[in-house]
Write the C-alpha cells for this entry.
Amino acid sequence: MAGSAANNTNNTLKSLLKLFTLLAIAGAAISSRLFSVIRHESIIHEFDPWFNFRATKVLVNHGFKHFWNWYDNTSWYPLGRATGGTLYPGLMLTSGLIHNILHSINIPLDIRNICVLLAPAFSALTAYTTYLFTKEVKDARAGLLAAIFIAIVPGYISRSVAGSYDNEAIAIFLLMFTFYLWVKSLRLGSAFWGAITAMSYYYMVSAWGGYAFIINMIPLHAFVLVLMGRYSPRLYISYCSFYTIGTLASMQVPFVGFNPVGTADHMAALGVFGLLQLIAFSTLIRQHLPSKQQFDTLLRSVLVLGFVVGVAAMALASHKGVIAPWTGRFYSLWDTGYAKVHIPIVASVSEHQPTSWPSFFFDLQMLIYLFPAGVFFCFHRLSDSIKGEASVFVIIYAVFGSYFASVMVRLMLTLTPIVCVAAAVALSTLLDNYIQDPDVEGEHQVENKETDHNTQHNVSHNTSQKAFTPKNKKTKKDTSISSTREKVIEKMQEKAGIRAPDARLVVLINVVLMLIFFVFHSTWVTSNAYSSPSVVLASKTPQGETLYIDDFREAYNWLNQTTSEDAVVGSWWDYGYQLAGMAGRTTLVDNNTWNNTHIATVGKIMASPEEVSYDILRKHDVTHLLVVFGGLLGYSGDDINKFLWMVRISEGVWPDEIHERDYFTPRGEFRMDEGAAPAMKNSVLYKMVYHRFAELFGSRPAVDRVRQIQLPKKGPQLESLEEAFTSENWLVRIYQVKQPDFLGRSFKDAIAFEKAARI
Amino acid sequence: MNNLLSVLGLILFVNISALAATVNDNIVKSTKLFHSTAHSTTTYHVSGVDDGTYDILISPNEFDQLSHLSVSLKESGEQLPYTWLNGDSYVQPYNFKRLAVQLPPNTPQLTLVLSISLNNPSTPLPSQLTQDDLAYSLSFKTYTHVVTPYHTNEMRVKVRAPTSKIHRYGMTHDDSKTTKNGGSMVYGPWMDVAPYSIPTDHIEILYEAAGPRLKYEVSERSAQVSHWGNVVSFRDDIVVRNNGPSLKGQFTRLTHQAQTFLNVLPTNIATMLSVRLPALSEEVFFVDQIGNVTTSHYKQGDGHSSHSLLQLKPRYPLMGGWKYSFSIGWENSLRFAAKLARDGTTRLSIPFSSTPEDVAVDRHTTRIILPEGAQVHSVYVPFEVDVQYETTTSYLDTIGRNTVVLSKHNTSDAHNGDVTIVYSLSLFNALRKPLAVAAVAFALFSAATLLRRINTRI
C-alpha cells in the first residue's frame, strides 16, 4: 500500500512536470514566432494571407451566409470569382469563430490581431499533438523531445510566423492531429476514435488542399499493414469508420464536392476500403468453413476475382471519364520537368522549385541526420505488436515525405513533422540508453510488455484469432533470448565500454551541445530568414539605424485614397491579393490563378507593344496599370525578372502573336540595356518600368542595380499611358490608361501636335 | 460716405426705439487670415447702454464659416452670456444673424470684445494647378464696415494676411481710405455711420499662400478612462484633405524629388502635419487602414515643456485635392487628467480636440468613455456643442460604460480647450470587473471539478 502511494505521488509529480514542460514548449513555440510583430508590427504577411484576411473580414462583417455565397466581382474582372465555393473555408471559419467567441464574452479583439496570431497559437497546439503522436510511436520521453523540436524547427516556423495567415497555419496541426487520432484508433480498434479521426480529417479537408496527403497516407499505411500480414479487426474497424465518415464529411466542403469519389487522387483510399472488405469477408468465411484447403481455394478465387473486377471497374470508369484523371499539379510531383513544359504558372512560383540540399540543413539542422537514425529505430520497433503499427506509419510517412520535400521546396513543410518525430525517437533512444539505470529500464520494459500482451490477449480472445497466436509466441521467445543476451552484455560493460560513466558523460555532453546549437540555429534562422513581412522591407543605414522601405503600402494606400472606387487595376498576378486587400480596388488577375487565359491576357498586355496592349486594356476597362521595379533599390523580385514567365504564359495561349525568342537578342542574351531586342524595348512592361528612369540620374549614366546594367540615355516614350504615381524608392509605379483622343487621332499624332503647339 | 447705402427704414425693426440710446463710440475689427482659418477680433467701445443687453450682427457669410464665438469684457476679460435671436420678429436685412449679449448691470459705458474663428474664409485661385506651379493664391472677401444696429462714431476694419505677397487689397470702388503696411491692411476710419448701414462696397484681398490649405473631413476622438490602468487612452480617427487647388494632370515622382532636393516644393503640397499632444504622452501610435505608418517622428516633451510634438508624414505627399485617412493615439496618466473631490466625485478634464493650427474641421466628435458603472453628474464645455449619451461595451464589461458624446460642426484649434466631466464611481462598480472575472473563473473550475467526477464510461 505504501509503495503504491509513493508511486502515486511519483506519477503526479511526473505528470505535473510533463504539464509544465509542455506549457514551456508552447511558450517557446509562440514566442519564437513573434519576431516580426516585435520588429515591425502586427501585420498580415506576403500575398495569400492578404486574401485569407479579406475573406475573414467578409465572414466577420457580413455573416456566415454571405461568406458562403460570396461572389467577388472585384477580382478576375470582368469574370468575377465565386469565392465562397472556391476556397478552403477552414481557416476563415476558425478565426471567425474565435473572433465571435471573444466578442461574445466582451473581449473586443481586432480581427486583424486574431488573424496575425492564429499561426503561433496553432503551432503550440501542433507541438502538443506531436507529443501525443510520438507517445503513440515510442513513449512520453520521445514525445516531449518531438514537441520541443516541432516547436522551434525553422522548417515549420517558415510557414507559421505571426502574420503568416495561411492555410498551413492550422493545417499542420490538423495533419498531425489526424495522424495521431488514426494511430490511436488503430491501436484501440475503436469505431468511436475512427469517427473522431474522420472529423479531424473533415476539418483538415476544409482547411487545406494538402488533405490529399492524408487520404493517400492512411490507406497506404493500411495497405502496407495488410501486406505485412498485420491485418486485424482493429485495422478493419478503424479504417472503415474513418473512410466512410471521412469521405462523406469531406464532400460537404463545396470546393471539394464530389472529388472524393470522382478523381484519381482519392481512388487509393477507395481501393484499400474494398480490399479490406474482401479480407474481412474471407476471414469470416474461413471461420465457417471446415477444411483449410476449401478455404484456400475460395480465398484465392475470391481475392483474384475481386481484384480483377475492381481494377477493371476503375479502368473503365477512368476511361469513360467518371473518374477524373490525375491533375497536372499532381503529375508535376512525379516528373519535375512536367510543370515547366505544361503548366508554366505552377513552375513560375519559386516555392514550387525542387529543393536544394543546403535548405534541408537550413530548415532542419541536426534533425536531418537524426532523422534516418530515428527511422532505423522505428524498424527496430516493428516487432512490437501494437506500437509497431505506428512505427510502420512513421516509416511510410518518412519515405514519402522525403520524396515530396525533395521535389518541391514548399513540401518541406509536410516532411518537417515526421523528421521531428523520427529525430525525437532516435535521440530519446540514445538518452534512454545513456541516462537511465539499466535495471530500471529493464523493469520498465517488462511492464510495458506485460500491458501490451494483456491488450493483445484481450483482443485475440475477443475475436478468437488463432492464426496470430503462434506468431506471438515466437516474438516472446525472441525477446527472451535477446533480453538475456542484453543482460550478459550489460554486465560485461558495467565497468568499461559504452555504459561506463565517462562514456556516458561524453555522449550526454554531446547531446546537450547539439540541442543547444539547434536552439541557436533555429532562432537565428527564424529571426533572419522567416520573420520579414515582405510587405515592408527593412534595411540598415551605415549609421546602424533601421530604414523602412514601405513603398508597397505607400502605393496601395495611394490607390485606395485617391483613385475612384470603380478603378480597375491591372498588374501581374502576384500582386492581385495585396491590391484587393490593401488598395481595395478591382483587379484583373490574382494569386488564385484559376484562369490561365486571363493571366495570359495580362502577360500579353505587358509583353506587347502599346498599340496592341491599349486595345486589350480598353476592352477590359483597365484604368490603371501597376508594375514593380527594383532597379533603383536593388530589389530583385521585380517584374522585369518575372517578365520571361509573362511571355511564356501568354505564348502558351497566343503562340502566333507572342514568341519567347523575340525577347532575346540574336545572340541569345536577355538584355535590358542599349542592345535589348526590339520586342523587349517595345513591350509595355519595359516602357513602364524604365519610363523617365534615366532622367533621375541627371548627367550621370543611369544604372539598373538589380541587373547591373547601364541604361540608354534616352528612356522609352509612353504614348497611351501616363505616369500617375511612383513610390518613394521607385519600387511601385502606377500608370493611368489614357482615354481615347477626343479628336480621334492616334496618341502619337496627338503628342506630336501638342509638342509642336508648345514650340 | 457717398458709397454707403442705408438699406432700410426704421419700420422694419420692432425694437429700434429701445436701442436708440446706445451708441458705439469706436469699433475696430481686426481679422487675422491663415490658409484654412481666420481669427477675427472686434472691439466695441459702447456708451449709453440702458437695458443691459447689446446686440451684435453677424453677416451670413461669417455665420456659415463660424466655428468659434465668444464675447467678453475687455477690462476684466469676463466672458459674457449671449443668445441667438432667431424669431420672426428679428428678420434682418441680408439675412444677418443677431446676437443678444447680456451685459453686467449698471454699466452704461464699457468695451466689448467679440472674437470669432472662421473656417475656410478664403477661396483658392486658380482651381487647378500642375505639379510644376509653385504657388497659388487665396482670395478673401469681406464688408468694409462692421454692421451694427446702433449709431457708430468711428470704425476701422483691419486685415492681416499670412504673407506680405499681396496681389490685390483695395476696395471695389474707392481706395482713398486704404493703407497697406507689409501684410496688414487698414480700411477706414469711417465716421458717423448710421445703424444698419450696409455698404455696397467690398474689400477683396488676394494673397499668395505660404502653405497648403488643409481640412479635416472627419475628426473623431475617443477618450477611454480606466481607473485600474490609471490612464486615459486617446484615439483620433482623421480624414485630412488638401483643400487647395486640385492637381492638374498627374503626379510625377521625378519632379517631386527634384523639387525636394532643390528645396522649392510648391506651397500646395502637404508633406508633414504636426499635432501637439499633452506632455508626457505615452504609447503613441500613428496608423492607417493597412498598418503602421513608418514615416512619422515623435518628440517627447519632458516635464518642462507643455506638450509633445507628433510629426505625421502621410505615406505619400498630399497634392491638391488628395485625401489621406489615418488614426493617431496616445495615453496620458490619469494623475494629470482627473481629480478626486471631497464628496467622492471625480472631476475629469479631457481636451475636446487637438486640431493643429490652421486646419479647418468640418465636424468633430469626441466620445468620452467613462469607467464601467460611472454616473455622470455634469458636463461642462466652454463652447456650444451637441451633447449625447450612449453606452459602450468594451473589454470584459458586464453592463457597459457610460459614454458622453460631444459633437460640433465647424471646429478648429480654437476648440482645443478642455471638457470637464464630473462623475461618481461606487466601490462596487470599481470592483465589478475583477469580481465578474473571478466569478466566471470560479464557475469554470467548479464545472471542471464536477465533470471530472462524473463517470461517463458506458
In short: Chain B touches chain A through 26 residues (CB under 8 Å). Residues 10-208 of chain B form a domain with the Immunoglobulin-like fold (CATH 2.60.40).
